[in-house]
Structure formats: structure tokens, C-alpha cells
Amino acid sequence: MVGVFVKGIEISVICGSLEPTRVIRNANLRHRGLNPGRVELVKWKTDEGIYVLIICVRSCYDEGKRTAETLTMDYHRGADVQVRIARIFNTYGPRMCIDDGRVVSNFVAQALRKEPLTVYGDGKQTRSFQYVSDLVEGLMRLMEGEHIGPFNLGNPGEFTMLELAKVVQETIDPDAKIVYKPNTEDDPHKRKPDITKAKDLLGWEPKVPLRKGLPLMVSDFRQRIFGDHKDNSGANVAA
Fold first, then answer.
1. In sequence order, what are the beta bridge partners of 50?
2. Which portions of this protein are annotated as coiled-coil regions (predicted)?
3. 165 burial class (0-12, 13-18, 19+ CB within 10 angstroms)?
4. Label partner for 11 (CA 20 to 30 A): which of 67, 79, 195, 230?
5. In the predicted model, is pLDDT for residue 47 greater than 90?
6. Which residues are catalytic?
7. pLDDT value for 31
8. Domain locations in the chain?
């Protein structure tokens, strides 16, 4: 069994840098207290490594991001290309694709259409959600600054899928039903960014809580689904 020591997960490459990846051979992850099918963490850190397997069902997703970041660093080192790396966590907001399959857009579209909210597994897995304007601010600070990264850009506020469903119910339809379906294989149980580095070096942290940003997304979705131009409160949120 081969494990790869990866410096972080949820990598979205703007252009960037990464210290060389270390390969751990013959590492028996079972003896390290990890389920070999998934990575269990309370927080995703920028510089603190974790063990993952490279042959799980969703490994190509993680490995693709890691490879892109490594190649970007090669261009930086070999060709002196100016680069930056952001590791972007779940983002939501107006003009998001309605049927893109992400949990926030799924829940909002289902509630507006009077369909049951689909929760996979027991709903206790957690994610964090940042409003799009917070992400844009973080990317601007990164691109205009002198630090290469990598930086975690995400909102550390953590919600279980059931908690998110309840926020959507409160915002759209308190009577919306919840249905449970089998979870996807290798679905991470927790996902939460550690944004200490972004706060310290970029002076950035998210400002918009979920309960403030979600209604703006709902207004946009309602307009695009039903053509209701009267219910459009816009995408701007005061910091």
C-alpha cells in the first residue's frame, strides 16, 4: 500500500507554489488510525501534511489538484513565472449554476421547486461555506500581494449537512421535507479550512455568515427558476 503525504487538500490553483511532496512507501494507514477509504480531520491545514491513498474512488479528484499545484510550482522555479496558489473551499452565491450538483445549490433549488431536500448518508458530515464576495476579496489580496501561498480561502464556520438543510428550510420553506439516500463512497466526513495563514499574511478573513449570504443566493435562484424579477435583492453584501 502506498500513501502520499500531501500538503493539504481542496487545492484550487490560481498559479502557485508548493514544497516538494514526500512519498511514503509501504505505509500501512490502518496502523495510523485512519480509515483507508477516507481522510478524517477536524481542520484542513495549509502546511501540515496528511496521509491519503491514491487508489480510492475519488482519488483522481484530489490527485488532479495536487498535480496541478506541483506543475505550477515547477513553472515558478524553472521559468521564473509569477504565480499564486489559493486552495478554495466551498463557495456559494448569486449566479451560481443552479444544477451543478453542489450541496448548497441542490438544497436551494429543491426547496424552491417544492422538492424534498436530498441528504446523503446520516447528514452528520460537515462542510464550510463562504460567500462569493469573501472569496473574491481573498483572491484579490492574494493576487496583488507578494506572498505566493498556498493559502486556504474558505469560511471556517462549520455546518453538518442536516444543519445546512435546516438553514435552507428557515430561509425558503419551513415545511420542506428531507429525504435520506446512501452516501457516496469515500465522502470526507469533515472539511473545514484553517485560515490562520491568510489572516496573518493577507489580512483576510470572511465577513458574510451563511444566514446573511444565503437569502441573496435564494433571491437570484428564484428569479432564474421562476422569472420573478420583483424578488431580486442583489448580490452585494456590506462588510
1. 6
2. none
3. buried
4. 79
5. no
6. 61
7. 33
8. 3-79, 90-226
